[in-house]
Amino acid sequence: MNIKSQAFPVAISARHIHVSEKDLQALFGPNATLTKDFDLSQPGQFAAKERVSIEGPKGVIHNVRVLGPVRAATQVEISRTDAMKLGLNPPLRQSGDIENSASIKLIHQQREVLIEQGVIIAQAHIHMTEEDAKALEVHNNEIVSVEVDSERPVTFRAVVVRVSNDFSLEMHIDTDEANAGFIAQQAQGRIVKSCS
Ligand SMILES: [Zn+2]
């Protein structure tokens, strides 16, 4: 029998980049800071007005949005479709886990930075507070399956639960995952648990 938990919002993350202070200066000039465009749903996170081009061995993608605030290490999150266009084979990882991930060149006007690692395909995950985790009966780093209703419904497996009181309840998938399931912004997901 399958048990479904309460529904939560599913958000689609388009390709984006988190930059370190060092790479921000290298790309946008000394003393550059990020300019907030709009707030994202996770508290403190924002979409910046700054954009960069990313170049791999087979292609380039322009206008990739930078998200703020700055981080300790630069991280580029792209879809598998993007990776093919760029000629890269980035690993499927959780945000922050960039050891031995793919390399890429970042470009802004005449400035370029080659990052040795930092390109990942983000593993689908659900942000939630401790209270949400209790209500959904899951714990931090638990791997769950999530069903998302749509015209072409899909169930995502290997979805990571990420618990922190700095988060707000929301599942994040990339554009390939959204497109596969005909999922638009505002979709709702439910954790599906099988029990005997
Ligand atoms: Zn996320």
TrEMBL record:
It is an enzyme of class 2 (transferase). It catalyses: propanoyl-CoA + phosphate = propanoyl phosphate + CoA. It comes from the Bacteria. Its cofactor is Zn(2+). It comes from Lysinibacillus sphaericus (Bacillus sphaericus). The gene is pduL_2. This is Phosphate propanoyltransferase. Its EC number is 2.3.1.222. Involved in 1,2-propanediol (1,2-PD) degradation by catalyzing the conversion of propanoyl-CoA to propanoyl-phosphate. Keywords: Acyltransferase, Metal-binding, Transferase, Zinc. One of its GO terms (molecular function) is acyltransferase activity, transferring groups other than amino-acyl groups. The keyword Coiled coil does not apply.
